[in-house]
Amino acid sequence: MPTTPLIEWHEGQPYSSQFQDIYFSSDHGLHETEYVFLKGNNLSKRWEILEEKFFVIAETGFGTGLNFLCAAKLWLTFAPIDACLHYISTEKYPLSLADLTQSLNLWPELIELSTPLLLGYPDLVQTGTPLMLFQSRIKLSLLTGDATQCLKQLKPDENLVDAWFLDGFAPAKNPDMWQPALFTLMATLSSKYSTFATFTSAGAVRRGLITAGFLVSKTQGFGKKREMLFGSIGAKLEG
User: Fold this and answer.
1) pTM to 2 decimals?
2) Residue ranges of domains in the chain, CATH in brackets
3) How are beta strands 190-198 and 7-10 bridged, if at all?
4) Nearest Cα to 30, choosing from 146, 124, 137, 114?
5) For residue range 9-68, what is the model confidence (pLDDT) as tens digits?
6) CA dist 209 → 11, 216, 232 (Å)
7) Chain centroid to CA 94: how far?
8) In what order do the strands lie in the sheet with 21-22?
């Protein structure tokens, strides 16, 4: 069984005792996800004109599941009804069901999406069996363990990733995750026009992504963060 993290609650929000870092922005976690990961990967526009029957998002750091729920909401709004989103996330320290429930209760506007996630979460963590959600329009896979090692389980000729949510605790807090091996693997697993977005603008992350073959741009960060990174493996995105 994967190790459950030690969670503290600071003013009602989850905080990692191990990494001494927040799970999402204290400014507004939901808006942070929408700004950094959904807008950063240009998802609403891409999904409105989607011609393929499948789209794959890969995430480093499932955390509270907020990124997944926001992506699911956007997918159900903009994507063709006959297309399927495969959301693949990694998590070294999955939250307990109680902590996940308490975290997601902060977002009552997502209750219709969070309820089926919470119902299926124990099996998702304990067995690793993907969840089929929302009339099978979304498939959620959760790989437990180190992000790089988990992503090595994916086959480059199957489920190539169309968008990356490069998340997790800050590089200064969790340097073991933000390694060149991760960026190289991301490039290997990326589809032709794969994109990425991340809340950080750390120099080591930027250089690592460029070395791996990504086109990297900076734009204004969310809330108190001055800058963030986004980019693609193919054509350059506009901020």
Assistant:
1) 0.92
2) 7-232 (3.40.50.150)
3) unpaired
4) 114
5) 777 777 777 776 676 656 577 999 999 999 999 999 999 999 999 999 999 999 999 999
6) 35, 7, 10
7) 14
8) 7-10, 13-16, 21-22
